[in-house]
Specification:
The chain is α+β, with helices and mostly antiparallel strands. The protein contains 5 helices and 12 strands. The protein is globular.
């Protein structure tokens, strides 16, 4: 699902289920001494995906440890993103010379819990969701908006090292599988340009919603 949303330079590896994960590196296992079993399975499964993606890029498998605000620390020369939800996980990696940043997210394709949408959406976004729902009632647009905002943050943070609130990006979803996130705060500097928006893609299938953003260098 994720790979179809990203440029050809990106290697994406996904897994349905969390039972066949590779063993963790000791540094990774040390982070889970108090974690519940479900958390350990998800942690290991998504890192298995990441290491298989490394291998496809010719990079020896290495630990993937959380850095600032929990963002994964990738081997030198790579950019990437990971996601996991019940029964699914994925990692996407690219050489840093090919893209400035990546953000991916997957969610169960169901409605957001009651009361969550007002806390993650701008009034204009909520208005657009109502129109989209009338046009495509088969899509849970509130969950799709949430996923897109997660992908925005994952693409944003490696470029800035700063928090981005849900209300600091205005996302316009379309029925053709694309979206644009207009940043409502000063965007990151990428090379010689100031980025004012991120363009992304979305898809659904197998009970999931997936979103992805690839930030080019120019």
């Amino acid at each position: 699902m994720i790979e179809e949303l990203l440029p050809e330079t990106v290697v994406a590896v996904e897994a349905y289920g969390h039972e066949d994960a590779d063993p963790l590196f000791p540094e990774e296992a040390a982070l889970l001494t108090r974690a519940v079993a479900k958390r350990r399975r998800e942690f290991a499964a998504v890192r298995s995906c990441a290491r298989r993606a490394m291998e496809k890029l010719g990079v020896p498998p290495q630990p993937v440890l959380p850095g600032e605000r929990g963002a994964p620390r990738w081997p030198a020369g790579l950019a990437g993103s990971m996601t996991h939800c019940d029964g699914y996980c994925a990692a996407a990696l690219v050489r840093a010379t090919d893209l400035a940043s990546l953000g991916i997210d997957a969610e169960a394709h169901g409605p957001l819990p009651e009361g969550v949408l007002p806390s993650v959406s701008l009034p204009a976004e909520a208005d657009r969701l109502r129109r989209l729902a009338a046009e495509r009632p088969d899509i849970h647009w509130d969950r799709l908006l949430f996923s897109a905002k997660e992908s925005v943050y994952k693409a944003w943070f490696p470029l800035t090292g700063k928090w981005l609130d849900f209300m600091e990006a205005d996302i316009e979803l379309t029925t053709d599988g694309t979206f644009r996130a207009t940043l409502l705060v000063p965007g990151p500097q990428v090379g010689t340009r100031r980025v004012g928006h991120f363009d992304g893609r979305w898809t659904t299938g197998r009970g999931l919603i997936a979103t992805a953003i690839a930030v080019p260098h120019a």
